Amino acid sequence: MSVSASGYLRIGSTDVDAWMDFGTGVLGMMDAQREDTGGARFLRLDDHPFRFMVEPAEADGLIATGLEFPDEDAFIRTCEALVEAGHTVTEGSADNAKRRCVTAFATVVDPSGNTIELYWGRELDYTPLISPQGVAGFVTSYQQTGDMGFGHLVLPAPDFDATSAFYTEIIGMGITDILYPPGMEGAKIHFMHANNPRQHSLALFNAPHPLGVVHIMIEVETMDELGRGMDRAKAAGAHFMATLGRHVNDNMCSVYLLAPGGIAVEFGYDGILIDPQTHVATVSTEGDLWGHEYSFPRVED
């Protein structure tokens, strides 16, 4: 296994200021206040220079997912394996690498059309997190195991089998759990872990999505932090796509909120940790232990 974590996201927004207000005012992330010639704004969760790059765009949705590799060798070997498998891999320029605060990166599109940025050597600035809402910390690392990434995301994968093979056989992820969601005939989700203890860093849903992402997740350290986030969301008038509940497979206690533009954000606490070297994949037919009453808004294609 080579990939270390889901490191960052590039999010396109028709209202960058509104997304930043949601990220800082509701979720409690920190405005990284980085200069950018493209007009992007940056949100940080920890000592990484940013975890979310919010970019001006004509349409709302996910632009790209940054997957982190432990070193240059793993990065190069994965890029070579992708080319050998027939995928087009585009090397990122030095200027664009600097914009992402990485040593090097390359772009590839998975079989379902999701843009992935593979990178290594994140350049940390060690600026401490100062949450404008007093959030003590987000769960992005664990003891001596190191970085666990920003959280997780679920990508649409209408070409499901080929896309799952792309991530497991080439990128280097492992399947943690296979979910057949109740009440959704024909639906299937592969939850995948990277080389860190987070139960899943990326998941695939076997259907398209107009925003290019089913949801993203960030995790706080205590139940009280989750509760305070819920209060902020209610005060801000944010749409709760799912009420408070706890998932079966990763034990996450969470709510789902809609960010400006419609991307669903799971705001959670208490996700389980696994041993990525020894974990045996499970199969689930229930999504929740309790709660999570869903209210899906209409999203136009």
TrEMBL record:
* Keyword set includes Iron: yes
Q: Which keywords appear in this protein's UniProt record, sorted alphabetically?
A: Aromatic hydrocarbons catabolism, Dioxygenase, Iron, Metal-binding, Oxidoreductase
Coiled coil (residue ranges): none
What residue stretches are annotated with the VOC domain? 5-121, 149-270
The protein's required cofactors: Fe(2+)
Name the source's superkingdom. Bacteria
Family the UniProt entry places it in: Belongs to the extradiol ring-cleavage dioxygenase family.
Specify the protein name.
Answer: VOC domain-containing protein
Source organism of this protein record = Candidatus Seongchinamella marina
Q: What is the lineage of its organism?
A: Bacteria, Pseudomonadati, Pseudomonadota, Gammaproteobacteria, Cellvibrionales
